[in-house]
Structure prediction request, 504 residues.
Amino acid sequence: MVCTALLSVLLAGTAVNVPASGLEPTSAPMLRAMEYARAPAILSDVEFIASDEMQGRDTPSEGLRITARYLKARMQRLGWQPGAKDGWFQTYELANKRLDTAGTQASLSSTSDNGTRSCTFSFGADLYLSTPFVPNAGTTEGDAVWLGSGVSAAFDAGDWKDRVGFVSEPADAGERQKVFSRARSEGLKALVVVAAAGDDVATRLAARTKRLVAGSPRYVPPSEGGEEGRNQRTNRPSVTNWHMPRASFERACSALGVDSATLGEEARELKLRWNETRVVDATSKVTVENVVGFWPGSDPVLSKETILISAHYDHVGVTDGQVYNGADDNGSGTSGLLALAEVLANHGPLRRSVAMIWVSGEEKGLWGSQAWAAEPWLPGEAKAVANINMDMIGRNAPDDLMVTPTTKLDKHFNGLGLLADQLSPLEGFPKLRSADEYWSRSDHASFAKLGIPVMFLFADVHADYHKPGDDVEKIDADKIRRVVRLVSRIVDAMQGETLLPPVK
Ligand SMILES: [Zn+2]
Prediction:
């Protein structure tokens, strides 16, 4: 805190306003307006957005919708105009696949001279899914093989392609993931993870089961043929990853003549046939929103050119009863955008127009930005000419900020990077580090597909990244304030006849 305070005083008190090389200094009206970016106000926005009541802003969720309405109310109050076709919200549809738990089931059967005996496992009693993703509808059958706790030796002991593997659940989550990856690479058709004795699978996987039943909504860009195209692409055989209570497995074994007490670490043919049926309802749709505000430019010609500034306002929701508040990811960028809106409201119109977009579905795979880029509508036939994206700008060292593209990504590098490099020292970021390895990881990647110059500002991941501990208490609001000031300076520098300085 001490360092941060000192830095602010230093910046405010000295007349440093001239960038290192040849660039016009930030204009006096913008410098005055930048004073309206205030750390306490930013922090109170983060506090609301990252409160437990928003339930981690999953896409889709009630908390996300409430956050969208908060953003709209704040923008209305600041005097911005709605920037979407139907007002403040650009809506897009998700196809909601839901698991039909009544129809989804599996069975094990044994065939001998005396005929066929079989045991049925019903979903939600004897059978669970390990992932929150609804599988493709269909049936799978194969011969069952016991693979111990899924250690390499058991997999190495034979060719298990097209089999259905049964394993004792490893205690460690990392090990479980490894077993599943191995099952996939060995070409198994399904993996059944048998829980430890006494493990209450129903309770442990309750949240996951609830999500499977409620649905797993997905966005598919129109360019990929919508949900139908997606189904065609994913209709390849996939490995279903089941969970089964130990008691259910043992009951089946004894009914089918397998002595489960003799099953150890070694691979062993169970001489049983597995048959699974996955029933999925893919007919329902869910609508989600991006929030778009518009600040019209004053120049009759240049106002058709719009600088698009973005941040995602969604996060990853609730898992196992814990709210993932996402104060930094991306309460920081979401609140930073609001602070920037306040700066511009106090500045008045620029020559070019500015649009702010808070996108949803980023955490699920850049859904909201893809949906906007698929139909990039702005008021008055304005066109987006550049994008600045902010994601996670409120943690780590006060003077540490990253940017992409850098000159190393030369086909993407553009004048925004030059402006950022020259102006960032004026806001307490002496040297921007490269975020090139995050080039495809946030929404600027969707906007870059429009063929416009983009830039991503990011202050790196940390120990609380995608953890429940990403809370408001750890947010450096002064850092967000200075990133907002930096973006204000960049936007101010984009008001000349040419949008951006040329890159060599
Ligand atoms: Zn993020």
Summary: The longest strand covers residues 280-295. The chain is about 30% helix and 25% strand. Residues 1-15, 230-236 have pLDDT under 50 and may be disordered.
